[in-house]
Specification:
Layout (H helix, E strand, L loop, with lengths): L1 E4 L5 H11 L4 E5 L12 E5 L5 H8 L4 E4 L12 H17 L4 E5 L11 H14 L5 E6 L2 E2 L5 H11 L2 E5 L5 E2 L2 E2 H12 L5 E5 L5 E2 H11 L5 E5 L1 H15 L6 H8 L15 H7 L11 H4 L2
Parallel strand pairs: 1-2, 1-4, 2-3, 4-5, 5-6, 6-11, 7-10, 8-13
Antiparallel strand pairs: 9-12
Helix pairs in contact: 1-6, 2-3, 3-4
Bound molecules: NADP nicotinamide-adenine-dinucleotide phosphate (NAP).
Length: 299
């Protein structure tokens, strides 16, 4: 049995599908166990149970590997980054207590326990906790994950399709290194079969400045939008107005800081092969055709 957190979500869905394809049994832990199960009998379902460590331990008992995708994009209500960090630590503790053989953890490029950005700091704290847990582990650090179910690139493209102007915070020279969700899933599933502890960036072969990325997305959908460079604070105001209009959280202050801080790019060699530019050419008819609301997806 393999445990995948979030098999009805984005990355977890690809990991579960690949495990299933390779004949492995999968149980998912999820915050929304009553959602339709796209895998049918192929994937068992259990709730996260982060508040009940005994029940959580029972749900992963006997598992060979745990694949953890659980994290939050931004804090909301009681679910802060500190709480999310505690939740992942609870999962790691349960995995150690129940004798899980391998813990595969999806982190983020430039995760750092001393980061001023709570998302990156929490990821860094969790990485250290896992490394010191005594579990055999693999840590994979993607930057931006692209695929048909992604939110960020879809919503940028949705705006490019619809509006005559697109605002870019700062000079747009900061970089991003997208990785295809299928490549990330393969790296994760392959890493489960290795013995040695592993900690790698999961990044694709192309690096774009943000200006280049937006221009590529615009070309893909033949957008004629003008790009306007604005200060990060103006971008944040616009993002908040837009979030109001869409009843969503489109972009946060910390996401702008992470993007502009060059944190979504790796210092190491690429570990994945799918090129965003080629994938976009194949998916030009679907990318950005509708707005994807993070909050509606989680409702
Ligand atoms: N997407 C990216 O571009 C990107 C970039 C870098 C790193 N990452 C990392 O890659 C991993 C997978 O990302 P993803 O985009 O594929 O995630 P996802 O599928 O949207 O969510 C992964 C898991 O986290 C849970 N989750 C997410 N937001 C939550 C919230 N607000 N409240 C409660 N549970 C929540 C989901 O719960 P349910 O099971 O209930 O759906 C799911 O189990 C994450 O650890 C993320 O930090 C993602």
């Amino acid at each position: 049995m393999n445990i995948v957190t979030g098999a009805f979500g984005y990355t977890g869905r690809y990991i579960a599908a690949l495990l299933h394809e390779r004949g492995a049994k999968v149980r998912t832990l999820t915050g929304r166990p009553n959602r339709p199960n796209a895998f049918g009998d192929g994937v068992e379902v259990a709730p996260f149970n982060f508040d009940d460590p005994e029940a959580l331990a029972r749900s992963i008992e006997g598992a060979k590997a745990v694949f953890n995708t659980y994290w939050i994009r931004f804090p909301r209500g009681e679910l802060t980054f500190e709480r999310a960090t505690t939740n992942v630590k609870t999962l790691i503790d349960a995995a150690r207590r129940t004798g899980v053989s391998r813990f595969i953890h999806i982190s983020i490029t430039n995760a750092c326990a001393e980061s001023p950005l709570p998302y990156f700091r929490g990821k860094g704290v969790v990485e250290q906790y896992l490394m010191n847990s005594g579990l055999s582990y693999a840590i994979l650090r993607p930057a931006i994950i692209f695929g048909r179910e992604d939110i960020l690139l879809h919503n940028i493209t949705w705006m490019l399709r619809r509006f005559p102007l697109f605002t870019i915070p700062g000079d747009g020279s900061y970089r991003v290194q997208p990785v295809f969700v299928g490549d990330l899933a393969k790296l994760a599933v392959d890493a489960a079969n290795e013995q040695l502890d592993l900690s790698i960036d999961a990044v694709g072969p192309e690096i774009f400045t943000f200006n280049e990325l937006v221009a590529l997305l615009a070309r893909t959908v033949a957008s004629k939008a003008w790009f306007v460079h604005v200060s990060p604070s103006v971008e944040l105001i616009l993002a908040r107005v837009f979030s109001r209009l869409t009843a969503d959280v489109t972009l946060t202050r910390d996401e702008i800081r992470g993007l502009m801080g060059d944190l979504l790019v790796s210092k190491s060699a690429p570990t994945a092969t799918t090129r965003l530019s080629e994938w976009l050419a194949r998916n030009a008819d679907v990318i950005g055709t509708r707005y994807r609301s993070e909050l509606s997806l989680r409702a």
